[in-house]
Design brief:
Layout (H helix, E strand, L loop, with lengths): L22 E3 L5 E5 L9 E2 L6 E2 L4 E4 L8 E2 L4 E10 L5 E9 L22 H10 L12 H5 L9 E5 L9 H8 L1 H15 L4 E6 L3 H11 L5 E6 L8 H9 L14 E5 H13 L5 E7 L7 E6 L4 H7 L7 E6 L6 E2 L13 E6 H4 L12 H5 L6 H9 L3 H6 L10 H5 L6 H21 L1
Parallel strand pairs: 1-14, 9-10, 9-12, 10-11, 13-17
Antiparallel strand pairs: 2-8, 3-5, 4-7, 5-6, 7-8, 13-14, 15-16, 15-17
């Protein structure tokens, strides 16, 4: 039986143009730009200097503090710059630029593709390897994985949920990863179960990926405690709170986390990264990225080194079409338009979407007609029209009382609005202003 959440949600066109495209290894680029902030929390501290020669897999940024993550070189070459650059969100971030040479990997990384199922290390060593590898949530949230696995004293979980829903239109990177690296993912899940001390794990996959459901079901019997749950196709099915509701029928409280109701949620890409870190000694230096769009000559799923510029991905997919109106980092619902193709791939980059001019044009904004459609589709039960008004008028304290922090920025409200109101834009603005207000209060 296929499951789903029942509050809100929308059904945008799937447009999974690359669902039949296997994983293609993108050649190592001539230049990479590796940000030292690719995760939620404190930036990593740069431990190399201009002119240093580095190897593939070598640490170049040391995680600072508890909520932080290590950064590794994804290539072999020479550090040419250490300076700030504009990232995909439009902010200045410190990064290490490396001019590449022949690929030479750090000695202890196992490059053999043979599956290693047997897990020999005790729990503390498993957690240490995950931390050292610099793994952050690869579903987009980029929360340091070792921190998420470190449960506070007195808090217990009984289920590990693995997000294979990939409900965002156009994107297929998780889908092809499940098909091509299914057993590695299952082994990674087994490692995570041992670290968390749970005996039950469920992989949630939307039914439009029936081949992935069947493939993983055929192998899951060999792995204790892992089951596959088919999900109905509905956006945002892959959000962790919705996944908990769909599979376990548990409601995560406002301002709470899945661990408050006995669950921890990870993306399938994160499980694969855990496998590579523990079984292959490989840090997180590459990931699968969907490069797609109706006008692209060769939309594809690429295995990409972290720090590769978006321009290199577009070139590999046939070049930028003449009728391009917008380039989006991510998918059409939660992604953000890029102002430069020199923006690099990071640990949280799942896709690159090329929209045609006619697709990317915003329709004229009209007055709210009080239809309440934005309220009915909000999976968190919020009132997006009200949040937009409060954000527009800078009523920061009122906006917090209306639980703006619970908004996951899924974009369902903007998608459904018949008046074409930029609800999500203003909600993001309201969140930013609220953070600024809190920061000023703390400084005073």
């Amino acid at each position: 039986m296929y499951k789903t959440f029942h509050k809100g949600g929308v059904h945008p066109a799937e447009n999974k143009l690359t669902a039949e495209s296997g994983i293609i290894d993108l050649p190592v680029p001539a230049l990479v730009t590796i940000p030292v902030t690719q995760h939620i929390g404190a930036p990593a501290r740069v431990v190399v200097k201009k002119g240093d020669n580095v190897k593939t897999g070598q640490i170049i940024g040391q995680g600072e503090g508890f909520v932080s993550s290590n950064i590794h070189s994804s290539v072999t070459g020479t550090v040419s710059k250490i300076e700030k650059f504009i990232d995909s969100s439009g902010y200045n971030r410190l990064a290490v630029e490396i001019e590449t040479s022949d690929d030479e990997w750090v000695e202890n990384i196992d490059l053999c593709k043979e599956l290693i199922r047997e897990i020999t290390l005790p729990r503390p060593e498993l957690l240490k390897k995950i931390q050292e590898a610099g793994i952050a949530g690869m579903g987009g949230a980029t929360f340091p994985t070792h921190v998420k696995m470190f449960l506070p004293q007195g808090k217990t979980v009984d289920h590990l949920l693995v997000n294979g829903a990939e409900c965002e239109p156009y994107l297929t990177s998780d889908h092809v990863l499940m098909l091509e690296k299914g057993e590695e993912i299952l082994t990674g899940i087994t490692i995570a179960m041992q670290v968390l001390g749970v005996t039950n794990a469920v992989i949630g996959i939307e039914k439009n990926k029936i081949n992935a459901i069947g493939y993983l079901e055929s192998h899951a019997a060999k792995y204790n405690g892992i089951s596959i749950q088919g999900l109905k196709v509905k956006y945002p099915q892959g959000s962790e709170k919705q996944l908990v509701k769909s599979i376990l029928k548990r409601e995560v409280p406002s301002g709470g986390l899945p661990s408050d109701v006995g669950a921890v949620v990870f993306n399938v890409g994160t499980m694969f990264a855990i496998y590579e870190a523990v079984q292959k000694n490989k840090p997180l230096i590459d990931r699968i990225v969907t490069v797609t769009g109706r006008s692209l000559r060769s939309p594809s799923n690429f295995r990409v080194r972290i720090g590769t510029h978006m321009a290199d991905l577009i070139k590999a997919a046939g070049g930028l079409p003449e009728n391009t109106g917008k380039v989006i980092g991510g998918g059409p619902m939660m992604g953000k338009a890029l102002n430069s193709l020199d923006v690099p791939v990071t640990k949280g980059t799942s896709g690159l979407l090329i929209l045609e001019e006619k697709e990317s044009r915003r329709k004229p904004i009209m007055n709210c007609i009080r239809c309440s459609k934005c309220v009915s589709v909000c999976p968190m039960g919020l009132e997006p029209y009200l949040l937009m008004i409060l954000a527009e008028r800078r009523f920061c304290e009122l906006i917090e009382d209306c639980h703006i922090g619970d908004c996951m920025e899924c974009g369902s409200c903007s998608y459904i609005c018949p008046a074409n109101r930029p609800l999500l834009d203003y909600i993001r603005l309201g969140k930013a202003r609220l953070r600024e207000l809190k920061r000023k209060k703390k400084e005073n």
